[in-house]
Amino acid sequence: MEELSQAQVSLTAAQKELSETKDALEKSKKQEDQLQVDLKRVAGQLETSVSEHKETREELTRTKSARDAVTDERDKTAKQLEDLKKEKEALQKEHERLHGDHATLAAQYADPSVQHFLRAKAVKVYKDPGIQGAKNKTFIYVLPSLQKRYAQGRDFVKNSDAIVYSKLNAYVGTEKVEPWLPAISGALVYGTIIIPFICTVCVLTRIVCKVRPLLLFCHLDFLLTTLCAGIFALYTGKEPLAAFAHHDASVYLFTQVIFGLAYCMYFLLLCCMWCCSKRGTSEGAFRFCQIVGAAPIFGIYYKLVWTPAMLDEMPRMDLLVEWIIGPGAAVSEFAWLPYFPVSVLFLILLRLERACWQASGSDSKKKEELCSVVMRDDIELATIYGEGSSDSSAAKKE
Hints:
By secondary structure, the protein is mostly helical. Helix content is 82%, strand content 0%. Among the domains are: 146-209, no CATH class; 211-361; 368-398, no CATH class. The protein has helices at residues 2-110, 114-126, 129-172, 181-208, 211-236, 240-247, 249-275, 283-310, 317-325, 339-360, 387-397. The model is unreliable at 362-398 (pLDDT under 50).
């Protein structure tokens, strides 16, 4: 019984110990569960910390990029500021220069000099459509041809020089003469070009192109030209210059260039003869009247014929007819109107030329400078008497 009671006691102790063990085991499980929860919580906190660290690093990277961008923008702004400072300095210098130019121009316009006046007028004339058109046509048609001819002439002269040098060397080439062969050949080649040119110029200026006969020829030529144009317009009812331009534009343009140059030479000769007119006589007054009569014709021709021709347009003589008879009238019936008054004006200029010759002459003066225009029964228009030519022929006979 004692053994049974001891066994019961032992069993009770064992059960108690087992229950305590079970309680300890349950407590351990609860602690384990708590540890698992804590572990999960710590893992979550760790992941949160890692993500926050990554976000912090990304934010730091973005901050660095923004800082670099701000730094670049600051450097760029500083560079732009430096450029603006330089530009400001340049503009200040330009402003100072313009201010100085303005002061100079103000002083010049307050008291203009002849040089400044002529320069301004030259610039204004150069920008005129007629002058611009003539310049363009010169650069397009004239200068290339002249450059080509100049190159051909230069090659011809060089080849001729080489040929003459070789021929001279073959015939007279000795040790004494050989050093002079280049000079001799050059003199022969260039002399054959320059000497005839000089002789031609002397003949033209001293024999053919005397000023007074040349002026007389110009008066007669322009008189006959305008008279024939007026007769053509009266007979056909067409404007002669427009008909000429329609018929052949290139020949019309060439003719206008020649006529324009001839009229410029004619007008300059009138001015020169007025400057060289004899004092104490009425020649200066007659010459001035000739200039006054020729100037309007020059202006009308330049405005209505020359400028349209240089711009590849038709002549505008119809504008002059409309200005004379009024707008709305039949211009074709009055196509002759611009030409007959000009013919009369050139006839007056021709008569004034005769008066200039008489005013500048005297009884003791040589008759070779006298001129007469006589209407003959045999329809001879004009005769120029030059006693100088008869005297020279008589001298040759003697």
